[in-house]
Amino acid sequence: MLRFLVLYTALALGANVAQAADLNALKQGQMESLVTYSKPLPVPPFSFVDDAGEEHSLAEYKGKVVLVNFWATWCPPCREEMPYLNALEKELGGDDFAVVAIATGGSNSPAKVGAFFDDEKLDAIPRFYDPAAFASRAMGVLGLPVSVLIDKDGHEVGRMIGGAQWDSPEAKALIKAMITD
């Protein structure tokens, strides 16, 4: 039994390294700025809330590839990339993938976020909040926007600092590769 566990662990670690190499091969266009890791990183536990004040966590997305985006209504590059995230969720969101956009900081009230979502016709991504910035601090976010790519096992495999066109062919190819892996 011990031999089986050692073999399984070695295979799993090899698969993770292979996935990182595969992601590096797919980094083209704006995705060249995606920082990837030779080994997936653990994601610290953190929570965020929805419009109703209900608490959520990434545990709800276990088994899915997740793109967690930390943003703010006052941040121009954040505002610019939100329609791309919405389009990505419309196209790829479902059983295998989700965009989790979290408005971080106290200045992102549900009223401000709601008005922005309405103005931009953002209708596919849920409205989540991190009013005290606990989630963003737990994830080591120092500036906005930051998007964190999480694998099906709940590990961080990539991070984009700054805005990106997440509905581009390059971004979709990268995420589709993670979904089918």
TrEMBL record:
It comes from the Bacteria. CDD domains: TlpA_like_family. Residues 37-180 form the Thioredoxin domain. Its main location: other. Keywords: Cytochrome c-type biogenesis, Redox-active center, Signal. The keyword NAD does not apply. InterPro entries: Redoxin (IPR013740), Thioredoxin-like_sf (IPR036249), Thioredoxin_CS (IPR017937), Thioredoxin_domain (IPR013766), Thioredoxin_ResA/DsbE_sf (IPR050553). The keyword Signal applies. It holds the Pfam family Redoxin. Residues 1-20 form the signal peptide. It is found in: Cell envelope. PANTHER family: CHROMOSOME UNDETERMINED SCAFFOLD_47, WHOLE GENOME SHOTGUN SEQUENCE, THIOL:DISULFIDE INTERCHANGE PROTEIN DSBE. This is TlpA family protein disulfide reductase. It comes from Thioclava arctica.
